[in-house]
């Protein structure tokens, strides 16, 4: 009986899944989503009914029409949000089951990308490489290979890698012997790092202490063709040494291995400032877009199936369907002219691993395929590999993969899989958001857009809506900017665009505003974040919309008109926050002379001018009872609160102050706006 029970338990373990997708119970959230949607539709209906009977002049009617147009856009965006978050999933991985079931794990190639040794210091990249080399993986000496792609071809980067290779001979055995948890040397030996440095319980042994001191002055597809690949940015070091095992669970699970293309880990950061003052930790956003066909490909912290990158279809997809590409339909000419590489491509597409044993021959082939002109006349960047044509080629690549019928999985273990350095200060944060939003809009206006991928491919309809929700980020800047200017406009010319306080209809926008903010605040609490973090994110969302997203629209518009092309702007990587910076200045918004700060400064000055005119009583007489009211004043004050960092910048000095050139430009623009607002009043109430 004992043997029978033992055998049954072993069979159960072998039959147990390697990962699970669990549907969250979100009935309350769905009810709130629908309530907000009904309120927004009710507001549109109210405007539609009252817009003709609005007892005012033509300009006031136009004000209501503009407000209705903005609110119609907000309603459309909310429909996309409801569709995206209707089914929330939780992904669970079981790496111990993987180790019990698989005697030999497949090989894996790891890619680290860097582009500028000044903005991305080699010491950061080296620590990322060392952390990857020390990952927990059975047979790692023969299974793992780490590649570094340096667009700058920097001798400094090459020298740093050479030194890192020497240090790795000491660092990797040390981490494995003492079960070190944090395997990026600069984090492990950081004065602020939490101790004990060893997770194995031997941190107090004399042997460990001696080796620790010894290891610490020393801190400074052709060749392997592995079936799985990992790519990370140069600053995203491996924080969880078992992440490779976690990621392989959905990739090797018998139930999902035929249709799971990649496993995406969330982007998280080390040395994060308290309450995330620059809104970098998109925790709620990342958890909300992992359903339907799975998460987007985010360009870093992602484990890929190699044959998917080479353009293969899922095994359970009918290759005869329109726009489909099976292994037989892929022409080897798509991949270039390297005979050795083509042999490896054929193996990868057939799910066969292994590479050439002749190292000199492999090096020669690697130099051939790495040359700048190799991809000319091929399908690289069009049908296979990373998809070109956008500064956010990661999103475009993931969407292309999912349009072929593939799914993706989300892996968020504890501790986090990878940690990177987040941008600090206003210029870095806004420039990064501008680059992202520019690339997203490029995808939307290109032939590789989600609508086309749904009509001609296998991208699910609701997944298409999710992509559209993200891709229209910077388009949202236009209606949001107009809506933010409406309160000031109405105060200056003494009109209104919201129902009066005594009008029962005021309950509609007030309820929608209150419920939405309570709802988003509860999401932050659910993710373990604070109310201050929620408010900081709300502030940065409005600042990004008025500044970064708006410039993203202009950038893409200039590209479409053929006036200029988009440029990939690298975000400056900083190793950690400076310890000599006063605590009062940590997280304080910084400025420079970039024109990206002009729209936000102008919007703030317009609100301040409107409130000043109201306090001084310099307003035209209202037409009947249609003057501005408490609702417009409250909205104007809310905009001022959203742009509080800019208000402090008007009084700040140095990098914490808005440059005078920016203030002068914004003052001129705000003066023009005030005169424009006064024009209809002067003409009608002269």
Automatic annotation (TrEMBL):
It is a multi-pass membrane protein. Mn(2+) binds at residues 213, 233. One of its GO terms (molecular function) is cellulose synthase (UDP-forming) activity. One of its GO terms (cellular component) is membrane. It is found in: Endomembrane system. The active site is at residues 151, 394. GO terms for biological process: cell wall organization; cellulose biosynthetic process. InterPro entries: Cellulose_synth, Nucleotide-diphossugar_trans. UDP-alpha-D-glucose binds at residues 120, 151. Keywords: Cell wall biogenesis/degradation, Glycosyltransferase, Membrane, Transferase, Transmembrane, Transmembrane helix. Pfam families: Cellulose_synt (PF03552). Its main location: membrane. The chain crosses the membrane at residues 506-525, 546-564, 596-618, 630-647, 667-684. This is Cellulose synthase-like protein H1. It comes from Punica granatum (Pomegranate).
């Amino acid at each position: 009986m004992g043997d029978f029970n033992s055998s049954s338990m072993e069979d159960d373990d072998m039959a147990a899944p390697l990962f699970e997708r669990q549907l969250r119970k979100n009935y309350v959230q769905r009810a709130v989503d629908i309530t907000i949607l009904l309120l927004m539709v009710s507001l549109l209906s109210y405007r539609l009914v009252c817009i003709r009977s609005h007892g005012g002049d033509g300009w006031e009617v136009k004000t209501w029409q503009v407000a209705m147009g903005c609110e119609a856009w907000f309603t459309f965006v909310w429909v996309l949000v409801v569709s995206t978050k209707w089914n929330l999933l939780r992904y669970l991985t079981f790496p111990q089951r993987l180790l019990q079931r698989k005697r030999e794990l497949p090989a894996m190639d790891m890619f680290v990308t860097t582009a500028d040794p000044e903005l991305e210091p080699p010491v950061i990249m080296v620590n990322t490489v060392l952390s990857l080399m020390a990952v927990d993986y059975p047979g790692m000496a023969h299974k793992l290979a780490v590649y570094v792609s340096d667009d700058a071809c920097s001798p400094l980067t090459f020298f740093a890698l050479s030194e890192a290779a020497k240090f790795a001979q000491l660092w990797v055995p040390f981490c494995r012997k003492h079960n070190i948890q944090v395997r990026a040397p600069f984090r492990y030996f950081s004065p602020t790092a939490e101790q004990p440095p060893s997770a194995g319980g031997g941190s107090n042994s004399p042997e460990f202490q001696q080796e620790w001191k010894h290891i610490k002055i020393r801190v400074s597809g052709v060749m392997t063709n592995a079936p799985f690949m990992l790519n990370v940015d140069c600053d995203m070091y491996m924080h969880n040494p078992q992440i490779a095992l976690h990621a392989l669970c959905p990739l090797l699970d018998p139930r999902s291995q035929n249709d799971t293309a990649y496993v995406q880990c969330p982007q998280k950061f080390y040395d994060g400032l308290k309450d995330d003052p620059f809104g970098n930790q998109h925790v709620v956003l990342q958890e909300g877009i992992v359903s339907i066909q799975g998460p987007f490909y985010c360009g870093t912290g992602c484990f890929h199936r190699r044959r998917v990158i080479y353009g293969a279809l899922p095994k359970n997809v009918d290759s005869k369907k329109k726009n489909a590409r099976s292994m037989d339909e892929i022409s080897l000419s798509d991949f270039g002219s390297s005979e050795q590489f083509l042999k490896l491509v054929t193996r990868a597409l057939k799910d066969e691993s292994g590479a050439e044993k002749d190292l000199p021959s492999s090096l020669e082939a690697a130099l051939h395929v790495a040359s700048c002109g190799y991809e000319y006349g091929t399908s690289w960047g069009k049908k296979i590999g990373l998809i070109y044509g956008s500064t956010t080629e990661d999103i475009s690549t993931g969407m292309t993969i999912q349009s072929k019928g593939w799914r993706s999985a989300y892996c968020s273990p504890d501790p986090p899989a990878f940690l990177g350095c987040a941008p600090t200060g206003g210029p870095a944060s806004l420039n990064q958001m501008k680059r992202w939003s520019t690339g997203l809009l490029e995808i939307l206006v290109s032939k590789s857009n989600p609508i086309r991928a749904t009509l001609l491919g296998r991208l699910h309809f609701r997944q298409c809506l999710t992509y559209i929700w993200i891709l229209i980020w910077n388009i949202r800047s236009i209606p949001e900017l107009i809506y933010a200017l409406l309160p000031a406009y109405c105060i200056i010319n003494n009109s209104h665009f919201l129902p009066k306080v005594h009008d029962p209809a005021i309950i509609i926008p007030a309820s929608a505003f209150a419920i939405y903010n309570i709802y988003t605040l509860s999401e932050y609490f659910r993710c373990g974040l604070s109310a201050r973090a929620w408010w900081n994110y709300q502030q940065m969302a409005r600042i990004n919309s008025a500044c970064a997203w708006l410039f993203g629209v202009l950038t893409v518009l200039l590209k479409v008109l053929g006036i200029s092309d988009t440029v990939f702007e690298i975000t400056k990587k900083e190793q950690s926050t400076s310890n000599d910076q006063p605590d009062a200045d940590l997280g304080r918004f910084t400025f420079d002379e970039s024109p990206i700060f002009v729209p936000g400064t102008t919007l703030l000055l317009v609100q301040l001018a409107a409130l000043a005119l109201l306090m001084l009583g310099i307003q035209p007489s209202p037409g009947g009872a249609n003057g501005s009211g408490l609702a417009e004043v409250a909205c104007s004050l809310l905009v001022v609160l959203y742009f509080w960092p800019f208000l402090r910048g008007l009084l700040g000095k140095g990098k914490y102050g808005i440059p005078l050139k920016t203030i002068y430009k914004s003052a001129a623009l705000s003066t023009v706006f005030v005169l424009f607002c006064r024009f209809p009043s002067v003409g009608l109430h002269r």
